[in-house]
Amino acid sequence: MSENILKISGLKVAYGGIKAVKGVDLEVNKGELVTLIGANGAGKTTTLKAITGTLPSCKVEGTISYLGQPLKGARSFKLVEQKLAMVPEGRGVFTRMTIHENLLMGAYTRRDQAGIDADIDKWYTVFPRLKERDGQLAGTLSGGEQQMLAMARALMCHPTLLLLDEPSMGLAPIMVEKIFEVIRDVSKQGITILLVEQNARLALQAANRGYVMDSGAITMSGKAEDMLHDPRVQAAYLGE
Ligand code: ATP
Known about the structure:
By secondary structure, the protein is of the alpha/beta class.
C-alpha cells in the first residue's frame, strides 16, 4: 500500500462570511507529484495556507495530517524542522539578505556544512543566474530570479514534502519552462510535491495525479494523464 505523506479530511475554511474551502479531502502519497488546479479564487492558496498554519484568524475545520500526525496550527519554523517546505505565492524570499544568505537560511536545520556547500553549488549549477548574483540582495532580483531562489531555498532543507503555490505566475515563458524542468527533476529524485497551479496543462503534464477545485470544493480528481484527456477539464481549464 502507498504511504500517506499528507492527508486532508473535511477541510473547511471561512473568512468571516466567505466560505473559501467547503469540505476538501485530498491525499498525497510518498513520491507523488500531485497538482491542485482551478480558477482564480477557487480556494487553492487557502488550502495550502491551512496546511502550513499560515491563515489569518479565520474559522478552520477538519483534519490535516502529515506523516500520520495532526498538523493543524503548526508554526512555520516547526514545519521546516519536520522537512515540510513551502514556496509561497509571491516567492517569500528574505529581501534584505543576499542570495547566498537566503540559501543558508533554507538549510538552518542542517549541521553538515560540506553537504550544505555542495547543495549550494548544485543549485548554482542549475540556476547560473543565482551564482552570478551570489552577493546581491534578494529584494533586487527579478520575479523569475526570486522564484528560482525561493525554490532552491526550500529544497536546501531536503524536504519530505514540498508545497508549491503558483510557481509559474508572472514568469516569462522560458522561465516557466525552466521552473517546470526543475519541478520534474525534483520529483524524479523522490521528493513528494503538492503543486498548486493555474497553468493546468503544464501542471497535469508534470503530475502523477490531479485535483480540480471550484468554488471551494473538489469537483474532480484522478490520474493526471486521464484528466488531460477529460473533455470537461479540456473545456474548462485547457482552453480546448
Ligand atoms: P488564486 O489562484 O487567484 O490565488 P485561489 O484558488 O488560490 O485563487 P484563494 O486565494 O484561496 O483562491 O481564495 C479563495 C477565496 O477566499 C476567494 O474568494 C478570496 O477572495 C477569499 N480570501 C482569500 N484570502 C482572504 C482573506 N485573507 N480574507 C478574506 N477573504 C479571503
